[in-house]
User: Fold this.
Amino acid sequence: MKLDDIDIAILDALSANGRATSAEIGEQVGLSPSAAHRRVKALEDAGVIAGYAARIAPDAFGPTTTAFVAVTLENQRQETMAAFERAVARHREIEDCHLMTGESDYLLRILVRSDDRYERVHQDVLSRLPGVRRLVTSFSIRTVFRRS
Assistant:
């Protein structure tokens, strides 16, 4: 699906407020509510809009720390990478996992509650992941912004 300026404006509106009504979206992008609804439905049907979710404040369950972990695997064989990817997907502490170019193979974003120290996550989760040769962790000082 080729996106035009109206589609992009609709996506911007939904990114800011996923619960926006067709009337609200239409008002923002210059369409009638029914035309806005048809456009949103077309974006959903084409898979451009993959779903909707609530964004939960990271500190909703108490103070948190964000850690970024650069992971280097023992090798880059397909079976090693697939086993690692299956394993990281099972751990709720791992918010994001990205296959990278450069020095490390993967970059993980981990959210750690202050009462659940990073040491536990490192020992009980990260160090037990299959195929891991090296872990390098950096802690976020603060999040400047985060897009949905």
About this structure: DSSP finds five helices and four strands in the chain. Strands lie at 64-73, 94-99, 106-113, 132-139.
